[in-house]
Write a structure and sequence with these properties.
By secondary structure, the protein is mainly α. It is built from three helices and no strands.
């Protein structure tokens, strides 16, 4: 997959990733950051993307995991402030 194909695929899947991140974290700005992190992770794995059957599904899983990590991090920060 060359850079143009990857860029095209990323633009196709970006709106769906944004919806996933927004539903999990409930914050538009944080969701944008999560989508950017997701796209960076995909870019960093560009050499092995040929092994992946569905870039869309792979992207959604990464986005979900990053979103959950952000949520856990936020909860940990709140717990440390309360305790």
């Amino acid at each position: 997959m060359n850079i143009d194909e990857l860029f095209e695929k990323a633009n196709e899947v970006r709106p769906r990733l944004l919806i996933i991140a927004q539903k999990i974290v409930g914050d538009d700005e944080e969701a944008e950051d999560i989508v950017q992190d997701t796209l960076i992770k995909i870019w960093n794995r560009r050499d092995t993307l040929g092994e992946i059957q569905s870039l869309e599904a792979f992207s959604m899983i990464i986005c979900r995991n990053i979103s959950l990590d952000h949520l856990k991090s936020r909860e940990n920060q709140n717990a440390s402030l309360e305790g």
